[in-house]
Amino acid sequence: MTEIKNEQTKDLTPSRGLIGRAKAVDRIWTVVFYLVALFFLLLLFAFAGYVIIKGFAGATPEMFRFDRNGIGNYFFNTIYLVFLSLLISVPIGVMGGIYMAEYAKDNAFTKFLRIAIETLSSLPSIVVGLFGYLIFLVATHSQPSLLAGSICVAILSLPLMTTTTEDALRSLPPSYKLGSLGMGATLRQTIQSVLIPACVPRIITGVILAAGRGFGEAAALLYTSGSDTNIKWNPHAWINPSLNPFNPLRRGGTLSLKTWSSFTASVGAEDVANLSAAILMILVLSFSLLAHYLEGRIRKKMGDTK
Amino acid sequence: MSENSKFTARNLNLYYGDFHALKNINFEIEANKITALIGPSGCGKSTFLKTLNRMNDFVEGCKIEGDVLLDGKDIYKTDMSAIELRQRVGMVFQQPNPFPKSIYENVAYGPRIRGIKKKSELDEIVETSLREVGIWDEFKDRLHKSALGLSGGQQQRLCIARTVAVHPEVVLMDEPTSALDPISTMKIEDLAVEMKKKYTIVIVTHNMQQANRISDTTAFFLLGELIETGATKDLFLNPKNKKTEEYITGRFG
Lengths: 306, 253
What we know:
The structure holds two protein chains of two kinds.
Chain A: H1 2-12, H2 16-57, H3 72-103, H4 108-121, H5 125-138, H6 146-170, H7 174-181, H8 187-216, H9 255-264, H10 270-302
Helix pairs in contact in A: 2-10, 3-6, 3-8, 4-6, 5-6, 6-8, 7-8, 8-10, 9-10
Chain B: E1 5-16, E2 19-30, E3 34-38, H1 45-51, E4 62-70, E5 73-74, H2 82-88, E6 89-92, H3 103-113, H4 119-132, H5 136-139, H6 152-164, E7 170-174, H7 182-195, E8 200-204, H8 208-214, E9 217-222, E10 225-231, H9 232-237, H10 242-248
Parallel strand pairs in B: 3-8, 3-9, 6-7, 7-8
Antiparallel strand pairs in B: 1-2, 1-4, 4-5, 9-10
Helix pairs in contact in B: 3-4, 3-6, 4-6, 6-7
């Protein structure tokens, strides 16, 4: 009896050499993964640093102005357009996600919907831009506008918002839902008062990604928002609505369009393009940091220690 | 049907798809008593508990035959909706499941979904409910802290407070202490005994000492059948059925 036991222990215990080798391999791979992470970090810093330094190196004070020559108005347009697009994509996307997670039956129609959402998410933005041009401008006989542009950007970020919300709802512990329903809450009350609030941190992550995509979007806006901009900050000028910065129906180029157009259109405007790119980069980074901070605060308030 | 019965199950059969989970159950649950449902895993005791507030509605392929009466009215066949039923028959789960909200918001949740909006009214309900389960003094200074930061035992008592905040008639408890330490378990047991003055309590438990300690009536389930039911003292001292005796003496389980 004891002999067999000993033999088994002997067989199962790896030799010293084997353990040593496993440890060495483990260490090597740990280093490899750290190096990969470091590489990404360096890449990001090098890239961001290059764009930002180069952008500010050629900048003149006039370029920062909120007038025809400066890029200030493009900066405003970028934020305003992304804001408008989120106003459209977040409610629709969240509702779509709620439908997919809580109401959709497991049938052919749902399967079809899922394929449609996946297809939409891989649609090239230039196609969406062209679609927007034909539907919102040509078909309605309208001029390029921030609204048309923001709808196109919203279309691009809708699948992301939908899947983020759906995944967030599905990853919640089932006990939240059962607890609420068990108290006599309706499914709608449960979703509105328990499930969605619990999903807010993850939905915010979706909003960050959607906004990030919106900030940098150029192709979808090429035909829809107009690449130039002419607005006045003096309220007396707003008699002409196309000069009112807050009028969503006016033309309005964004920083990414400005980067593109000043690089291609006029000679000697590279400095403006570089500065636009730098400002855009800073905008995306600071928005991302702000949103993460907000997400952390909400998580903390909910008592989530993740 | 006796005068004092809260729930009456008559010829109750329940199927999960092809699986016959409850077999011809006839059972009365008395008001203002603690009824313990015992039996080995998979015997149908939790399933039976869930038929009492229609939580089985959420299980796909679940089919129910027979009658379940609450105060003489069939909860599956009358116009009483499941929503209305669950407002009268609350439930405490095996794993404490406070919502990821503050202690206050957890207790105020039920009253809020019933349309109570006034702050003073909600404040009062929160205080009385927490007092009722004996955790007001413990919690009163951190009402607006997240409920997820509480210990398991505190969370479970908070969940009971959340349930009683809407003044149900019946409180169903599905192994409420199986995830808790002995001291928390004792507190919940004491609480259950205190609560039967106001509520009818039905508790599923794996712990026979627990059933023995706190319940007035015990029902023993085995393989979907209700084998024996009776006053707890009688059932544990003089089980009539051989299977009951074997189970409570620990010969299988």
